[in-house]
Amino acid sequence: MLFDTLICTLLQVSQCSLRDLLLHCCVDDAPDVRQSAFALLGDLARVCPIHLHPRLSEFLEAAAKQLEISKVKEAILIANNAWWAIGELAVKMVGISL
C-alpha cells in the first residue's frame, strides 16, 4: 500500500513528463525498451490509472500495434506485456469518465 501511494505521489509531481517518456519508450526501436515500457505501463495502470488518462488512446494504440501478427512472431514477450497492460487499463478504467 505504501508503494502504491508513493507511486501516485511521484506521478503527481512529474506526471506529464513521465507519460511522455513512457509513451516514447512504448514505440522505441529497441525491443527491450518496449518490453520494459509495457511492463511499467501495466504497473502504473494497476496502481494509479487516472494519471494515464490524458494519453490513454495513445498508449492503447501503441500496445495494439505490438499485437500485429508480424510483431508477435518477432517478440512474444513484448506482445505479452502489451496484452497485460491493455488488460490492466481496461479493468482499472471501468467507472472512470473518458
Automatic annotation (TrEMBL):
Gene3D superfamilies: Leucine-rich Repeat Variant. Residues 1-16 form the signal peptide. Keywords: Repeat, Signal. It comes from the Eukaryota. The keyword Repeat applies. InterPro entries: ARM-like (IPR011989), ARM-type_fold (IPR016024), HEAT (IPR000357). Pfam families: HEAT. The keyword Repeat applies. This is Transportin-1. The gene is LOC107464266.
